[in-house]
Specification:
alpha/beta, TIM Barrel, nine-stranded parallel sheet
Length: 241
């Protein structure tokens, strides 16, 4: 079974919370109460100096949750344009303090970042985000296979969902390949249910926000926690009311 730090993935739904540098302290109580995993969205930090990023990553470890470092490319939802050299330096600064990285399959830096993660025993999440549509089945499969070729331990696919047919295709994609380690998310108002129910059908992580939402259709952390407790007896048994 895959592990993110000491946390097993795949046995029950796991709830991750994306944080900025300001969120690490401002929402510490909510994170400890509701989140299984912290995702540091380094592209949303106030500063992009490697020493500052390493300091924030160290503070995030004090929350007592496994930590994912993400320096999202602007083409796939990142907050600020950073060069490949800058992104590589920020991943390198974060890696000693985190348990996983998330890097886009299309990024030129994907394979070097994955290799750096594996060199220290960190998990590599390789992702694809499409904010315009849900691609066809062949294209979804191609993104997944490309991520695996680049060394992904976990493949993340997040696409814009226009209607229930898109959501159903994503669910079919998840169920056909979940043994490979997948995170699948439907974005937008028509995809909100996927953030709850895909976690019940094998998607390894789902994401809830504190502060402000970072993706279309993302639910507040506490609300998502209580909804998962309602629909997953396994999650409820491991997560108190």
């Amino acid at each position: 079974m895959l592990k993110l730090g000491a946390l097993e993935l795949g046995g029950l739904p796991r709830l991750a919370v994306p944080l900025t540098d300001g969120d690490v302290h401002a929402h510490a109580d909510a994170v400890r109460r509701y989140a299984d995993i912290v995702e540091l969205r380094i592209d949303r930090f106030r500063q992009h100096d490697p020493a500052y990023v390493a300091e924030v990553c160290g503070s995030a470890r004090a929350l007592g949750r496994p930590v994912i470092a993400t320096v999202r490319a602007v083409e796939e939802g990142g907050a600020v344009e950073l060069s490949d050299a800058q992104r590589t330096a920020l991943f390198a600064a974060a890696l000693p303090m985190v348990d996983a990285v998330d890097v886009e399959v299309a990024a030129a830096i994907c394979e070097p970042v994955v290799a750096q993660a594996h060199a220290i025993g960190a998990l590599a999440i390789v992702s694809h985000h499409d904010f315009a549509r849900t691609p066809g089945d062949d294209e979804l499969a191609a993104h997944c296979e490309a991520a695996l070729r680049r060394g992904a331990d976990v493949v993340k696919i997040a696409t814009a969902v226009a209607d229930s047919r898109d959501a159903e295709r994503l669910l079919d994609f998840l169920r056909a390949r979940q043994s490979r380690g997948l995170i699948v998310i439907g974005m937008g108002s028509a995809g909100v249910a996927t953030r709850v129910f895909f976690a019940l059908f094998g998607s390894l992580l789902t994401y809830g926000f504190v502060g402000r939402s970072g993706a279309p259709g993302q639910l507040p952390l506490a609300e998502l926690y209580e909804t998962l407790r309602r629909y997953s007896p396994a999650f409820a048994a491991a997560h108190p009311a």
